[in-house]
Structures are given as structure tokens and as C-alpha cells.
Amino acid sequence: MNPMERTHNCEMKIKRFAYWFIGFSVVVIIWKLCIIESNLVSLQSFRKALELQEDQLELTQQQIVLFENWLNKKNNKKLPTIYAVTPTYWRFVQKAELTRISQTLRLVPNVHWIVVEDSETKTELVRNLIVESGLVATHLNAKTPPFEQLQSKEPRWKRHRGVEQRNTALKWFRDTLIPNKDKGIVYFMDDDNTYNVKVFDEMAKIKKVGVWPVGLVGGLNAESPILDEKTGKVKGYRSGWKPNRPFAIDMAGFAINLELILTKTEAWFSYKMEKGFQESEFLSYFITKDELEPLADNCTKVYVWHTRAENPAVKGTIPGLEV
Ligand code: UGA
Ligand code: MN
Q1: What is the model's pTM?
Q2: Residue 150 pLDDT exceeds 90
Q3: Active site residues
Q4: Which one of 28, 87, 202, 245 counts the least CB within 10 Å of its CB?
């Protein structure tokens, strides 16, 4: 073969190889596309199957909720009654506040709501609200004496609030319930705070006095008992105001075993107490600091907030419409 023929032969070989290569690649590509296509089809049917399962999963979740409710109902029989004591007085936000907390209480099993109105007589508004709430409840009233009533221009802290009403509830407990027989936990539940139902779960663990943090109070994001790392007991308080009080805890930050309320009959709230010392002095009747039972995950969770509703500027009222 001469060199010309050799070059031509070589070119032919390369061309043939290129045709083969292109042909082979096309076959491979078509084959791959077929696989992807069939994968897509199976992926789609997998997705459809999952969608079907999703409905079933939702159903199962509902079945779990129902089952949980059923279990809770069985367990609730063993839970102590929570006696929630709520002082309340007329102002434009009263019905809204009471609606809010009564509906929170609807989520709490074994609760007995004790509503004490700061009024000469029980009002229709509160009576109807209690009936509508469907809660087990006791409706009382006790008017704050005029010398202790907050005057319109006075700041709130000038007067003790809820003293007469909480004492009326204490009297009701001691007149109505029997030590060693009636079991429960007493919680002073002001009408304007915000409560997570979890705080009531915590109360079920109380032996004497349980404590936990309170959000948005005393100029801090939260006040809280401080625990000793070694013993896990309360060693002090993070509080925006006088943290050295024997018990620097807001009313919303503790609950007491009913047994203590019924047996320590000398324990009352009083106007004689220094302003801001109601909680501290009241707790001193029952317990020492190192006996306090820290709850809410060793006081690391906030389940109650010391919220306050702004007084709305109401310029007119619709006659006959209860708000
Ligand atoms: C803080 C505490 O959270 C209260 O538990 C405590 O009684 C009060 O300080 C205090 O040192 O006396 P604060 O938000 O300042 O609470 O008080 P309010 O929420 O205005 O009153 C506490 C409770 O007493 C509420 O349930 C409220 O409805 C009731 N109250 C207030 C009355 O029954 N009559 C009143 O004239 C005022
Ligand atoms: Mn308040």
C-alpha cells in the first residue's frame, strides 16, 4: 500500500469507529431515558401511595389523640382537684378577661373555679359567664373596704389588690372542705394573667408548695426561683423587686396543697402587710425556703405570664349590649 492509500484506510477506520460510537451512544441514551421514565412512573405511583397514606396517618393521629383523651380521663380520676381562686372586679375588660381564663380552664381536668367578685352583690355578668363556662365553680363576693380601694389617679401598687377576695376564698375552704378527706391544690389565679395549661399539669406534682417562673413581671422578662446546682433546691430568687424577700415570688408563681390551707387556719392575707409582701408573708405561714418544690422543668420553663390589659378608652356604650 502506498502512503496515500494507508492514510485513506486510516480515515475510513476512524469514521467507522465514530459511526459506531455515535450509534452506541444513542442506544445507551435511549436506554437510560427509558429507565428514568420508568423511574419517574414508579416515583409518581410512590408519591400517590404516600398521599393515600397521609390521609390514613392523619386518621391515626386523631385516633392517638382520642386514645390519649381516653387515657387521661382514666388517669384524671387520680389527679388532685385544682382549686383556682380568681378575684375579679368590674371594668370594661372584665368579661373579656374572664372569658379568656374560663376557656383556658376548660382545658384543665379536675378543676374547681372559685370566682370572688369585688362587689356588694354578685353580678349577672359574672353569674352568666360562670354558667356558660360549664366549669365546676363556686361564685362568691366580697367588696374591698373603701379605705383600701384604689383611687382613680393612684398607681396600682399603692393598694393591696385581691386581699378581701382571697381571704373570702380561704374562709370558704375552711368552712366547706374537710382536712384529710378533701384533696387538692390551691392556686391564686388572677383574672388578667395568661396561663399555659401545662402549669396545671405541674401542680398535680405538689406535695406542699410548688414554685415556677412567671413571665413579664417586676420589670424583667421573667422572675424565677434560683436553684442550687448541687441540691436542686431553691437558694434565692431572680426578681425585679426586693429579691431578698423570704419568698420573692409573684402570686402566679406558686400553688399550695389544700391540706396546708385547711390545717394552718391562722394563715390569711392582710392589709397590714407591707406593699408587695402579700405573697412572701402568706407563704411564710406554711413553709421554709428550702422546702419549696421547684417545678416547670427545674424552673427552666415559663408557663404563666403576668400580662395586663390596657384600659380601653370607651367613649360610648350601646344600651342593652353586655360587653
Ligand atoms: C400583682 C400580683 O400578681 C397580684 O396577685 C397581687 O394581688 C398584686 O400584685 C398586689 O400586690 O396586690 P397586679 O397585676 O398588680 O398583681 O394586680 P391586679 O391584677 O390588678 O389584681 C390582682 C387580682 O385582684 C386580679 O384578679 C383583680 O381582678 C383583683 N382585683 C384588683 C380586685 O378584685 N379588685 C380590685 O380593686 C383590683
Ligand atoms: Mn394583674
Answers
A1: 0.81
A2: no
A3: 279
A4: 28
